Amino acid sequence: QVQLVESGGGLVQAGGSLRLSCAASGRTFSRYTAAWFRQAPGREREFVARIAWNGGSATYTDSVEGRFTISRDNAKNMVYLQMNSLKPEDTAVYYCAARWISGSQYDDWGQGTQVTVSS
Predict the structure, then answer these.
(1) Contacts (Cβ under 8 Å, ≥6 apart) of 56
(2) Are 48 and 37 contacting, i.e. CB atoms less than 8 angstroms apart?
């Protein structure tokens, strides 16, 4: 199990950028797949991006492909989400999540950080 703490959210104008950070505790974080999810008001939580335990591969939902970049630094137990060309529809609470390398679901979640994009 790992504990996750997100930071970096805020208010930004459309077209701007934000970088979210997720600090993980636990010596075995490097063996976890890490991901970002988001939840907008009145909507279900949705997948945003995922990165393999070694950073070797990343997957994105279609709506953020080419605008967002997920990365990680296992030496620092950190995961990042660089968000560029932000749109009002990106407004949501963003959550960091972790899944054990052989696991089938995300069991560990952060508390979330609010991202608001104004038009």
Answers:
(1) none
(2) yes
Give the SS3 label for residue 108: strand
Structure tokens at 116: 């608001």
Q: Which two tokens stand for residue 20?
A: 């979210």
Q: Going residue by residue through the chain (119 aa), what tens digit of pLDDT does each one get?
A: 899 999 999 999 999 999 999 999 977 888 999 999 999 999 999 999 999 998 889 999 999 999 999 999 999 999 999 999 999 999 999 999 999 988 889 999 999 999 999 99
Q: Which of 50, 68, 65 is nearest to 105 (CA)?
A: 50
Name the 3-class secondary structure at 89: helix
